[in-house]
Amino acid sequence: DVLAHGLIGAPDKAELSELMRTGKPNREIAQWLGRAFPGIVETMELETGDTADYRTTSEGIELEVLDADEKRLAMLFFRWDEVAPLLRGLYARQLDGFGQEQAEPAIAADTTVEEPIETAKPTEEPTAETPAFHSEPVTVYPGEQNHLPYDVVVERLHVNQPEPTPPEPRPPENFRILDDDLGKGGPKEKFWRNIKAIATLKQIEQENRYATPEEQHILSQYVGWGGLADAFDPDKPAWAAEYAELKELLTPEEYEAARASTLNAHYTSPTVIRAIYDAVEQMGFRTGNILEPSCGVGNFFGMLPESMAGSRLYGVELDSISGRIAKQLYPKADITVAGFETTDRRDFYDLAIGNVPFGQYQVNDKAYNKLGFNIHNYFFAKALDQVRPGGVVAFVTSRYTMDAKDSTVRRYLAQRAELLGAIRLPNNAFRANAGTDVVSDILFLQKRDRPLDIAPDWTQTGRTEEGFTVNQYFLDHPEMVLGSPTAESTQYGKQDYTVAPIEGLELADQLHDAVKYIRGTYQEAALPELGEGEDIDESLPADPNVKNYSYTVVDGAVYFRENSRMVRPDLNATAEARVKGLVGLRDCVQRLIDLEMDAAAPDADIREQMAELNRRYDDFSAKYGLINDRANRLAFADDSSYYLLCALEVLDEDGQLKHKADMFTKRTIKPHEAVTTVDTASEALAVS
């Protein structure tokens, strides 16, 4: 009813009929529908007396059916590739304005005749008004194997066909963003894309599986709730259906988190993401550990250039729904669904990239609370600690990181990093994706080996001709301001600084030109010289589960981690065997320590781990001698845990084994017990 009597008018029906007459496949019909009907929102009365609200996107049509009392009867979504066969059926039967010039089936018949055709003899000769009927046995197959004409009526169907073997599930792959219009659309179109994505996510999670490629495409349409505050307002009649949908679909916790994110959950456009990668690639970055500390659904990961495909991806996202979607879109990435303040991998990353949250509030992170930085500046401070010396931080941030009159934040950053360049975006850069007009900057910083007492020009501000406070960098480099600096009236009637877009110029072209002025060379991680030779066979991005300055075994090969890289040391066969044995001992000791520190760990588990430690130690010492022996020290002394392992042996004055340490036979660590009550104010102060 909606398709034939509402959405598709007579001219469109004629064009669709022509496409079908000329044999266009359903895929092309679906593409035509997506181009012809994007972003339509209408209401119509159905033949049943009910009402249908329908919304179209480039992907399909969403239907909400209401009865006379406006009670929802159904909520449906059809992709255009599902709609196309329905329209083809109307065309074949010449119904509802769909017609064909000659009576021929839309798909050629190819029936298998099992017996001679037996023609029924009608009582009257057929006339123009009376169709001729005949019967014949034919073989009817399921689905795509069926080639019967559309006007064949099958009264009985007998198929003795075995159930097909289900295909092997494909291993999950990271999603690739190929659509530069991702995230664009009107408020209601974005809303219903979000709803579709959340419903898809919950179905996937309920079935405990990974998303299919088709489902990943739906999930990628999620853009968060920035600019959609009306959907959370029960007093907005125009958004009543959307409000009810949110309350029904989201848990109370998810609803509150979504409502709280309407002010700052803005997603980055593919145009800006591509420009940031272009700048980083221009510096010489190819592979490494990449951090996105406020990753949303992971759009930066989805646009990772092919030249950086060997990188390891790490994302952090506070919002539960966004983080869970990111896990489905990028199953090969390491996504932490928690606040940035809960993570700490110092000197681990080669590149930190992303669009940080803006706001005049602070994050409660004990290590950074004393700085008193607002959230966007906090992300810079912490990210610089997370990347290794020589690593790069490339963030989209509020212009006030650069323009604030107080230079404290910029001095802090300048002491720890060199500014490679900055790009000021026009105020409409995020309008289509995030529905907001705001001036933002892209900053490129490279971490120093050590802090310097320095205050370069970019830590200072100056004034424009209109008297606005602007960072000195942008006054000295107007080519990095992608628009016309001007004044605008605020909601309080004051004049404020803004950057208006230049009519006729495309942002992508402006960014392409500006990136050329970003100066700096990416510094590859310094690889340690280990073992008997100086040559390093190969290196890998570091595994965060391997402690810094420690050996590990990957696919049977020994690696040594130093900051963001793991390298293959040049070891002879005997030394490599010693290292592998000591790595196993070290990991066994660490598991035992973890168990003893856990107050809830059963004693049986601890005794079992002690037995495992004894077995590993006895096997190792029988082959390679004491851990404290010179040969083992030469092989493993670079490992940060070597002296912990040495403590497993109690030696006599001659350096011979006196006995094993107590760790082999009894508990040596008392688990931590949280203090829940105190008696005095001084005790309370000490506990806090």
From TrEMBL:
- Entry keyword Cell division: no
Protein keywords: Methyltransferase, Transferase
InterPro entries listed in its UniProt record: DNA_Protect_Modify, SAM-dependent_MTases_sf
**In Gene Ontology terms, what is a biological process of this protein?**
methylation
Q: Which GO terms describe its molecular function?
A: methyltransferase activity
Q: What is this protein called?
A: DNA methylase
- Originating organism: human gut metagenome
